[in-house]
Design brief:
Layout: H1 2-22, E1 26-27, H2 32-40, E2 44-49, E3 55-61, E4 64-71, E5 81-88, H3 96-105, E6 110-113, E7 119-126, E8 131-132, H4 133-153
Antiparallel strand pairs: 1-8, 2-3, 3-4, 4-5, 5-7, 6-7
Length: 158
């Protein structure tokens, strides 16, 4: 029995050690500049503040503008979540039914019609407790995919 326990421990230690190493750089909303740097790795981006004084990233992917809004912030720091968002003004307006179809058939990104009748796409990310740098970088990549697919969905021409 002792041999089995020792064998199990020998196999588990390298696994847990490898997991800890791959997550040494945490993104938790405490430093919005880290999120800005990751966004810049996927296209152009600038960091500033929104009308509440919270951080905001203005970026560009696939030839269109998007924003990353920070939520749950204390004095513009220690934010608990972010929202990727893009809106599209088109001559031919999208319908609520078309946006609902996206929401039913697509796993990532929430489509809606804003107060001006324009199509929007959003993707919320919880940062409470932190996520690995690699995970958030992958999330920015997912946002890129969502944005590209949404542009096709609404027939938006850049």
């Amino acid at each position: 029995m002792k041999f089995l326990a020792a064998l199990l421990l020998a196999f588990l230690l390298p696994v847990t050690g490898a997991s800890a190493q791959s997550c040494s750089n945490i993104i938790d909303g405490g430093d919005p500049a880290k999120i800005f740097q990751l966004a810049r790795g996927h296209g152009s981006a600038e960091i500033g503040t929104d009308n509440r004084g919270d951080p905001k990233v203005d970026g560009r992917m696939h030839g269109v503008k998007y924003q990353i809004y920070f939520y749950g912030c204390k004095n513009g720091e220690q934010c608990t979540s972010v929202q990727f968002r893009a809106g599209f003004t088109q001559e031919r307006k999208q319908t609520i039914q078309r946006m609902n179809e996206w929401n039913v058939t697509k796993r990532f990104g929430k489509a809606a019609i804003d107060k001006d009748g324009d199509a929007t796409i959003e993707m919320n990310v919880n940062l409470r407790g932190g996520v690995c740098n690699a995970n958030f970088d992958e999330t920015v990549g997912w946002w890129s995919t969502v944005l590209r697919e949404f542009l096709q969905w609404i027939n938006f021409r850049v």
